[in-house]
Amino acid sequence: MLTAFPAASRSVSACSTRGASTDAFHLRLIRNSPFRPSSRAANQRVMGSKADLFATPGVVPEGERAEVEAATKGFVFQQTMYRIKDPKRSLEFYTRVLGFRLLERLDFPDAKFSLYFLGFQPADAIPEDKAERVAWMFQQPACLELTHNHGSEDDPDFQAHSGNSEPKGYGHIGFHVPDVDAACERFQKLGVEFQKRPNDGSMKGLAFIKDPDGYWIEILNAEHAADAFGK
Predict the structure, then answer these.
(1) Which residues pair with 115 in a beta bridge?
(2) Which of 2, 12, 78, 225 is most buried, judged by most C-beta within 10 A?
């Protein structure tokens, strides 16, 4: 069983007074959102068609896409990077709780930091040769890079900033799962800390969990999202 994380039982509800909780934040989003079911009919900003979607201000017009796609051919959204306190705890969380696989590890002893790259590629797809593996890994889409500055695991003052407290910036990554409730039951058994449980607040059917450094992870189901926002 995964080592229990501190404060795993503390779920944040709509009545929480802690900072900017997920519920409070998302309640504001829901109330002001053009996708809120009760307000969609009256809100002219709703994008009903694909043409409306593509016409969003700031988006490159479809007539110019060919030039942009030619110029960016071969570009891959390759990684999101988190700074972490303790690689052992973070790797246990991401490989056991969420099913990531460690694709590569790069150590820089002189600079006193290490990088861990996680993804969902099968084990037999990972090259054995180090140089080949590094080149392969840096072409894989949507990897998570964990950066560990050596010694931070023993530093009582080290604390990562999740972006969800002031000053706000970065928010979260997200996972589609087949069954949100079943996934959250498993997370509970593994001792994972919740920021929001599926039935907390007004936005039902999705959850937010936290990794060992407090970064938020949204847990959602695509079909449920389509029922809520796609009609």
Answers:
(1) 106, 147
(2) 12
